[in-house]
Design brief:
Number of strands: 2
Order of helices and strands: EEHHH
Helix content: 55-70%
Shape: globular
Structural class: alpha+beta
Distance between the termini: 35 Å
C-alpha cells in the first residue's frame, strides 16, 4: 500500500492510500476517459457513498471492471 498525493476539485490537496495496482487502474481509466486523474478522483469523491475516499476509489475500479466484464459477455 502506498500513499499518493492528489488534488480534489482543483484546490484541495489530500492523500489516498491505495495498492499500486488500484492506482494504476485509476490511471488507466482516466486515460480511457481522456480526463486528468485528479478530475476522475474529484468525480468519485463527489458521488461516493463511503466515508473513506480510498475505499470509494477501490469500489469505483471494481465497478468499472465489472461493467467491462458484463459488456463482453453480452
Amino acid at each position: 500500500m502506498k500513499k499518493f498525493s492528489v488534488i480534489i476539485a482543483k484546490r484541495h490537496a489530500t492523500s489516498i492510500s491505495l495498492e499500486e495496482e488500484f492506482y494504476q487502474a485509476l490511471t488507466d481509466i482516466a486515460k480511457e476517459e481522456n480526463i486528468p486523474l485528479n478530475e476522475l478522483i474529484t468525480e468519485v469523491d463527489s458521488t461516493r457513498q463511503t466515508a473513506n475516499l480510498s475505499s470509494a476509489l477501490r469500489l469505483y475500479v471494481l465497478k468499472k471492471l465489472q461493467q467491462k466484464i458484463k459488456a463482453k459477455s453480452e
